[in-house]
Amino acid sequence: MTQINTQWLLAIFGVLWGLQFATSSEDNEYMKREHSLVRPFQGVGVILPHWDFLGNTMVTSNYIRLTPDLQSKSGALWNYSPVMGRNWEVHVGFKVHGKGNELFGDGFAIWYTKDRMQTGPVFGSKDHFSGLAIILDTYSNHNGPHNHQHPYLSAMVNNGTWSYDHDRDGTHTQLAGCEVRFRNVEYETFVSIRYENDVLSVSTDLENRNEWKNCFVVNNVELPTGYYFGLSATTGDLSDNHDIHSFKFFDIDKSITHEEIVSRSNIIPNAKTFEAPREHKEDPKPGMSNAKIFFILLFVVLVAAGVAIFAISYFKDRNARKRFY
């Protein structure tokens, strides 16, 4: 009797495990375990199945913390397996939170790139990357004429030759973007990245409504097969907890041949509608504040008064000496 119950339990567990990693629909979408992360995370502390992590990343059963709310920290999480499908969709569950009310940073990035496990200055990962970056930036470094509000979600497609301009929040090389509000909320927040037939669509669920809100859609984006998914985050003088709660990869290819996989693997990442990087412009020098002007005028008045008093004293003393002689 015990053996039968055990067999039934194993069978039920197998069915539930299969359902967890395969959601079927009319579009034949399947969540693939080798590219996904769902709670509870089994590799607490040491090993995470199908994924590598580095830096200050901490794995718990409920979340993966890329950085703690401390200064000068960096962490990353990278999938082992290259993505061989042409069309896919990714859902990332996350929470960004910390003690700071006015100042906090810096944010995190979701990567689909040629190289993996490479640290660098772009939210903890390498610059001059080849592939796609979806950036969730929480701190505004740029205050010039083409700034935007933060937090800000943007995309960048790079062929390995361009540099992400962190001081300008990537404004000169971004593909598209939208303002978002996801920091210090009580619930889990989500971003969806869908790439289908060279169309990149990014949506968010940041209000706990269980529905997607469009951020942007960009046509004619060419990405190769065989690249890797990753996530990274960094803190500098400002900090936040950057927590990943889930990463779900859906294969939405109806069918793809070996020849298509091979041909797509040779594509150089590009976007037909991508604006060329604009000339790096320095921020205009800010004008003097009213307080600064006041103190400068006060200083000039005091100096003038001092000179006048000295001149009066000097001439009085000189005239007095003349009368004495």
Set out the fold topology.
Elements lengths: L1 H20 L8 E2 L19 E5 L2 E2 L4 E4 L6 E6 L8 E10 L9 E7 L5 E4 L7 E8 L14 E8 L16 E4 L9 E8 L2 E7 L7 E6 L2 E2 L5 E7 L6 E11 L6 H8 L4 E2 L18 H35 L1
Antiparallel strand pairs: 1-17, 2-5, 3-4, 4-17, 5-16, 6-12, 6-17, 7-9, 7-16, 9-10, 10-11, 12-13, 13-14, 15-18
Describe the structure.
By secondary structure, this protein is α+β, with helices and mostly antiparallel strands. The chain has one domain (32-271): Sandwich (Jelly Rolls), CATH 2.60.120.200. 19% of the residues lie in helices and 32% in strands. It contains three helices and 18 strands. It has helices spanning 2-21, 258-265, 290-324; strands at 30-31, 51-55, 58-59, 64-67, 74-79, 88-97, 107-113, 119-122, 130-137, 152-159, 176-179, 189-196, 199-205, 213-218, 221-222, 228-234, 241-251, 270-271. The strands form three sheets. Strands 1, 3, 4, 6, 12, 13, 14 and 17 form an eight-stranded antiparallel β-sheet that branches. A hairpin with a 2-residue loop joins strand 12 (189-196) and strand 13 (199-205). It is elongated, with a radius of gyration of 29 Å.
